[in-house]
Amino acid sequence: MSFVGSRTLIWKIGVIRPQNALLFKPSMTATSSTQLQYSPLYKPNQLICGTGHTVVVTGWTVKESVAKHLDREQFAAIGQLYSPTRGISLLVRNLLYNPHVRFVVAINATEQDRNTGACQCLVDFFVRGFRPGKSDTGRDCWVINSDIPGYIDIEIPATSLETLRHSVSCQLVNSVTEAVNLVNEFSRKPAEPWGEEQQFPLTEVTPTVLPGTRYGHRIEGKTIAETWVKIIHRIKTTGTIRPTGYDGQWQELIDLMAVVTNEPENFYFPEPNYLPIDRASLESYIPQVVEDAPYQEGVKYTYGQRLRSWFGIDQVEQVVNKLIGEIDAASAVMSLWDVKDHEKGGSPCLNHIWVRVVENELSLTATIRSNDMFSAWPANAMGLRALQRHIRDRIAARSSYNLDMGPLITISQSAHIYDDCWENADRLIDLQYARICQQRDYADPVGNFIIELEQGTIAVKQTTPHSGEEVTCYRGRNPLKLIREICMASPAIAPDHIGYLGIELQKAANCLQQGVAYEQDKT
Question: Beta strand pairing status for 140-144 and 130-134?
Fold first, then answer.
């Protein structure tokens, strides 16, 4: 299945209720002859809805892989639970509003299901209960008694949660087949609603958005972690808020280019780790990008399948051969987009990969049509970096080329953060952004500028970044005019660099006007 740009980690459950549909009351008995319509309050239109009394939670397993084996009368709803920290609370709210649901079947079928632990945490809620505590953003909440972090909104009374736990049977299964058999069994059991519909207030976060560019952004960092924090800050600061197809909102920038220049070979994980991925999860994710994989029910595809066998040719080996034969080729391209995706649906978010060798550096550029930048981008970037290294190593093993690792570039055409992650994103910015911005080496690709007073004018000499060779000189008496000339000639100059130059040029202009000596950085 695709992780790039995947729907943010949340319980996706809902149904479109016809305008004249009856809202069944809990006084009705849900037996095999009585059908109740599942009517969720949150995230509608995101599940397959039926009229039974069993909810199926599929985790990362594709919900259609379960639904195709069942009749709608056999289940109440089938939805996907990606995360225990942000999804279980909404699932619990919907269950409290639908007391005719008496059974929950949670599927732990795939490696992705087990890695995220959402279904296991859900079962732990029903079996082991909960306690008061704090969420990962510091909010008061109910913490599920589980080895896997999971939270429930504090606005839901403990008495309601306890009633739900003792009224609904929740069972964990390890395959789609086992889940289908269990739903069939439950559908034959009579079950009355356990109580009345319950609804509780939900706290919503509305971000403050500053003016900014909508299209075309460039963010650079040495590591994936550093670049990610800068990305989250840019989106949360100036991203446009739009409705999504997932019955929520996202904050979005269009065409965001992220450049990672020096990611360590074994990957950098901050301590404590604030990334939405750890080393154990990364080890299971990288093969999904680099390697082919056999078909598994409930998994649409992996990126490795699309690259290795989907089109009947191994595209990774194809670009390796291409570059060995023509090291400076500009056509080492891999495509994951299948024109049939338009008709079939479920198209990959990662569309295109281009590998290029320039001055003995192998760079990789990936185009991603839709990218969940908070929950998915760090894993995406690490997987792509692993692919980049794999290609570099394959070339070295089969030729005389010993290439350096160049930058990793991702171009996210829709770079967004889903609304259920806004609070987490704000907390990340508060804790990490200022610190990361302070860790800089003051290097600017456009070079350095030496400011002097010569013959009654300000002379600004631009030099190359490394050798210090003078390449041009700007002269004048007006600091604002000089700043504009420099920006016109070098539009890629770092923002803080041009700010520094503005300060120094004003100081030089003051010295010129007063007839006193000027010395850069000291006057």
Answer: antiparallel
HSE-up (13 A, CA, CB side) for residue 498 = 18
Q: Cβ distance 512 to 458 under 8 Å?
A: yes
Per-residue pLDDT tens over the stretch 113-153: 788 889 999 999 999 999 999 998 888 999 999 999 999 99
Please tell me the distance from the alpha carbon of residue 164 to that of residue 489, in angstroms, as a whole number: 66
Q: What letter would DSSP give residue 459?
A: E
**Distance from the first to the final alpha carbon of the chain:** 60
Report field, pTM of the whole predicted structure over 0.85: no
Long-range contacts of 88-91 (CB under 8 A, 24+ apart): 88/11, 88/118, 88/121, 88/122, 88/125, 88/144, 88/150, 88/151, 88/152, 89/141, 89/151, 89/152, 89/153, 89/156, 90/10, 90/11, 90/13, 90/42, 90/43, 91/11, 91/13, 91/57, 91/122
**Burial class, 90, CB count within 10 angstroms (exposed 0-12 / middle 13-18 / buried 19+):** buried
Residues 6+ apart with CB under 8 A from 498: 483, 486, 487
- Mapping DSSP onto H, E and C, the string for 45-58 reads CCCEECCCCEEEEC
CA distance 321 to 401: 12
The values of phi and psi at residue 397, to 5°, are -70, -25
3-class DSSP state of 147:
coil
